[in-house]
Amino acid sequence: MINLTDSAVNALKSAISASAQPTSGLRIMVEAGGCDGFKYRMS
Length: 43
Fold this sequence. Notes:
By secondary structure, the protein is α+β, with helices and mostly antiparallel strands. It is 30% helix and 23% strand. The protein has one domain. Strands 1-2 form a two-stranded antiparallel ribbon. A hairpin with a 5-residue loop joins strand 1 (28-32) and strand 2.
C-alpha cells in the first residue's frame, strides 16, 4: 500500500489536470541511483 501526503495528492491533481492526454493512472518507478541507492519517479 502507498500512502500519499496531502501535498503529493495536490501535486498529482495538478499534473493530471495539466496533462495533454487523458490520464487514468499513476506509474511509480524505482531506479538505481540517489543517496540510498534508489530513486523514485512518478509519471
